[in-house]
Amino acid sequence: MKLFKFLEIISKEEFPFRLEYDSIGEITVIVNTFTKVIEYSFNKNGITSLDEFEEISSTEEPKEMASKIMDLINRPQRSWIDASNDLGIRFIYPYQIIDINGMKHEFTGLLPDFGVGKGALITSRKTYEDASAIAGLTNDYTISGLNPFYYDKYDRELFIDTLSDWGWIGKDSEKPDWLEDKNRE
């Protein structure tokens, strides 16, 4: 189906919609069907994809809305706090580094007993580039660069595997029993 035919149909049904245009020449039509939101993407040949989003719950309470916003913002930190509590490991959060110019850089956190040097620096989508630059200059940290699709929610098996990949640099007497011994080079 072509875009203009689709817009004609949606308009007759009187669903609210908005259009978005991206840099690769696709137009996305976002339609509110009152029970869900559907995004239809079109290029010059017609429809290319369709994504549906259902509303699970809603609120008009300011405190609950603020809490949901903070849940969105702090997911990486919360997942590592959960890992720290479950696995019995140290996680320092938030973690700040002062660079050679005296500028402060804040990161999601630091796992001081994993990785290399001062530990594994946990970054978010918005701090990864800063962390990479600092680590490149100092060689003091392992940089996480973890995909948020997998690491924004705590998954015990996945986190153990990742921590095992980074390796233990803490005191031998404090090394967790669950840690898998993997050869690192």
> Globular, elongated, flat, extended or rod-shaped: what is the shape?
elongated
- Helix and strand content put the structural class at alpha+beta
**How confident is the prediction overall: mean pLDDT?**
86
List the total number of helices: 6
Gyration radius, in Å:
23 Å
Give me the side-by-side strand order of the main sheet: 1-2-3-4
Determine the fraction of residues in helical runs and give it as a percent range. Answer: 25-40%
Low-confidence region ranges: none
Largest β-sheet summary: 4 strands, antiparallel
Give the beta-strand count: 9
Tell me the number of structural domains.
Answer: 2
Distance between the termini: 54 Å
Our estimate of the beta-strand percent is 15-25%
Order of helices and strands: HEEEEHHEEEEHEHH
Overview of the structural elements:
With 185 residues, the protein is an alpha+beta fold. The chain folds into two domains: 3-54, no CATH class; 69-174. The strands form three sheets. The protein has a four-stranded antiparallel sheet with strand order 1-2-3-4, with helices on one face. A three-stranded mixed sheet has the order 7-8-9, sandwiched between helices. The protein is elongated, with a radius of gyration of 23 Å. The protein has helices at residues 3-13, 62-73, 75-87, 128-138, 148-151, 156-166; strands at 17-21, 27-32, 36-43, 46-54, 95-98, 104-107, 109-111, 119-122, 141-143. The longest helix is centred in the middle third of the chain and has 13 residues, at 75-87.
